[in-house]
Amino acid sequence: MRKFHYIFAVFTFVVFCILWMTFETPAILSFDKKAADLMYGIDFITWFHNLGETNVIFGVSLVVLIIIWVRLRDYKLMFFTFLTIGVGFGLYQFLKRVVERPRPEIVDQYTTFSFPSGHATHGILFLLTLAFVFSRLVKSKKASQIGWILAIIIFMLIGLSRVTEARHYASDVLAGWSLGYTWFTICSWWYRTSNRIHLQKTNSNE
Prior knowledge:
The chain is an all-alpha fold. The chain has eight helices and no strands.
């Protein structure tokens, strides 16, 4: 990964922390209200929440793990997928219980906490992981780039769907994206570093 990605991961972590500390301030509440007024009820975007459902993400992830095992036999990549999607799920669930922000007040609202948005956090981790794995399965650089672009578009639509449904505040979604990108970058750093160390050890033993 380029240095830019690590710098941006630090930035997104700072954004997450700031949103955590300020989501009750007038500025953030005003931002959330404007975003809700602008996006509420956009049916096209609302549909994408289905792609961010936990059972869909874990189901597809299981298939991805099987593909990695059959095609690549890359056990570090399998563990990377577990870290991003599996541990990432536990991370945002833990933070929801720590922060305890109530969800927007609507009829038939969920009873779980709102911050950060699980769909936004898990969605970005899921889609970026798919793009990361796909880039290792294909030889075409263009195909890899298309995979990354589609991943970005879809995880953004998944996150925005929570605002169009009024299931989350916009600041919950921004926090979810920020947390997800930071965690994904940490996991990517681990994967690349462990592969580089293994390669160095292999070359030194030859």
